[in-house]
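pinned: reference chain
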Amino acid sequence: SVPLGWSYERDIELGRFLYDHSERELQRGDCTKEHLSSVEVSSQAEDCSAAHLTDNQTCTFWESNGPPGQHWVRLNMKKGTIVKNLWLMLDGQSSSYIPRRVAVYGGTPNRLQHLRTILINENSFKDVCILRDMKTHLPVLEIRILECRDQGYNVRLRGIKIKSFWEWDLILNADMFQLPRLVRYPLLEGVDADVLYRRAVLIQRFVQLLDSVLHYLIPLSEDSIGTFNVLR
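pinned: its structure tokens
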């Protein structure tokens, strides 16, 4: 049942609390191997394969073997992963192999959308963050190396690193609703921690159920925008 004196505004506040909590508590260090399904590349030189992008070795690297401007790395993410940070680990031994301009695309394999383009600082020779703070799961992330330094022909990367968490992986318990944590959420401050916990469990369950059917509900074209208004 709905808690006594509860309101829709408190649901919104609780949802915001849960989202903020997930960002603080669930971001881990390097989640590359845990959350990455596979890696594809546009080309590779002998003994410099895509496997070196995730082997965590400082002495190995992936090197492309193709025409300039046609180099890319495609990351196939496990279902439910939300990427908070994506880094390129540069190989600084030869400047002409270092990316200068990089574009990141994301989405489903046949509908990738441009997320951002990055001009890498000429003084960067180690790790460069090229993507941050994604809010939804992207099945595919594609890194396109548009240009190398010094008009370089091929590119070398020592590796990739990902910081991420699972989409609905909130570890709920009543202790997380203690008063010091609620200072930024005034609508929740006067509510018993057990009440907030039970409501949070219900919201999490609702989100899981909605996520499982959402792709059947969202209209695919502007012609059905009326259906979307009804859904809202």
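why pinned: The chain has a mean pLDDT of 85. Residues 82 and 165 are 6 Å apart (CA to CA).
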